Each structure stands twice: as C-alpha cells, then as structure tokens.
Amino acid sequence: MSEIAGHPGATAVVNESYSFACMRCGHGWEQSYEIEHHIDGGGREFVQYMVSGQIVPSPLSRPTCANCDNHVVRIMRPGRVASARDAAHRQHRTPPAGPVEVPVAADGSVDQHHWHLSDLLHVFQRKAS
Q: Which residues contact residue 11 at a Cβ distance below 8 angstroms, ignoring those fewer than 6 apart?
C-alpha cells in the first residue's frame, strides 16, 4: 500500500471546497478541505477531513455556524457565498461624491424649470367627462 507524500497513511488525497450559509442568523462562509483516504487495520476504507493540517469533523455530517453555533446550515457548491457578497456590494454601492451635472439641452441652454407638487400630481387628476 503506497502513501501520499506529506500525508502519512493516506492512500489518496482530494481537495474539496464548500460554501455554507446559516439558516438561523444568515452568516455565510467558505472552507476548503483536504480529504485523506485511509485503510484501517481491518482493511476498511475511511476518510479524514483536514483544515490547515488539523483533523476536523466532516462538514457534511453536522456543520456548525461559527457565528451562532446553530446546526441548520445549508451546504452549497464553492463560490456561492463570495458571489452573493459581490452582488450585494455592487447593488448597494454608494455613488462617488462630487458635483452634480445639470443636463444641458442641444442648443446649449440649461433647463431652469422649477418643479411644483401640482406638476407631479396632474397625472393622477381625472378629466371631467
């Protein structure tokens, strides 16, 4: 039986990543794992999940939210949390501060119209028949 260099006793090592979202508090995170395949003394195969060289529980068995310790956690394909954060950031981005440009007509004049409430409400008024 051959071992994988740097992984004593492992017959195979697979890298997997997952996205997680807590259904209680909304916390989202991503984690990558090294999954080491081993064979025990009785010839049965088992796996160990590793993060930063430390053995951790399988994220598929009972994941725990690091924010609220709840176990109602959704597991998704990698990149889902990052793409949701990027989309939220783009959607809620504040426009840069600076002077506001006044629209200029084709003839170079600037529209000096002052709007009044009655100008806006006329579309809601009924015409007498």
A: 1, 2, 3, 4, 37, 38, 39
